[in-house]
Amino acid sequence: MEQIYNKDLIFRKARKGDIPNIVKMLADDELGSKREDYKVPLPKSYYDAFQNIFQDKNQELIILENFNKEIIGTLQLTFIQYLTYRGGLRAQIEAVRIQKKFRGKGFGKRIFKWAIKRSIDKGAHLVQLTTDKQRPDAIEFYRALGFRDSHMGMKLNLLQ
C-alpha cells in the first residue's frame, strides 16, 4: 500500500518514528490510560510489536495526517483469511484513535470510510470490529456508520 491522498488528507502505513504518537493516542482516554505505558522512552515492547505488524502482509497500521504532516489519527486493519464463506477474507478494524484536538470534525468518519474502501479493494466480504461496552459514544458512532451487533463477543484475559 502506498500513500493515498484523499482531498486534504494522507492515509499511509505507519513508520517506526510514528510509534510514540500512536501510543500517546492509544493512552489518551480513560480505558487506554489503564492499559498503555506511554512514557519517554517508550518500552521496547511497542517497537517489537510494530516490527511484527510491519512484517505481516495481513496487517496495516495506518496513519491519517494532513498536508502539514500533523498526525490526525490512526487505526489497525487486519485481514483474516478463512476457509468459511468459501475461503472468504474478513477485515478487522482495531485501535482507532483521533487526536483530541481533531475530534468532532468528521475525521473518525473519514478514516472509517477509508478503511471500508480499503477492505473492499482487498476483496474482503465483511468488515468487523470490537469495542468496549464502556464506550457508549463509540458504539453509537459505529452504528451510525452501519455496523450492527450481530454476534456476542467473548474474551479470556490471560494476564491476570
Strand order of the largest sheet: 1-2-3-4-5-6
State the name of the first-level CATH class. Answer: Alpha Beta
Q: How many domains would you count in the coordinates?
A: 1
The amount of helix comes to 25-40%
CATH superfamily: Gcn5-related N-acetyltransferase (GNAT)
What profile does the largest beta sheet have?
A: 6 strands, mixed
CATH architecture: 3-Layer(aba) Sandwich
How would you classify the quaternary structure? single chain
> How many beta-strand elements?
6
**Total of DSSP H or I helical runs spanning 4+ residues:** 6
CATH topology: Aminopeptidase
**What class, by secondary structure content?**
alpha+beta
| Rg | 16 Å
Strand content is: 25-35%
Q: Low-confidence segments, ≥5 residues, pLDDT <50?
A: none
Ends: how far apart?
38 Å
Protein described:
The relative contact order is 0.14. A 6-stranded mixed β-sheet has the order 1-2-3-4-5-6, sandwiched between helices. With 160 residues, it is an alpha+beta fold. Helices cover 32% and strands 26% of the residues. The protein has one domain: Gcn5-related N-acetyltransferase (GNAT) (Aminopeptidase), CATH 3.40.630. The chain is globular and about 45 Å long.
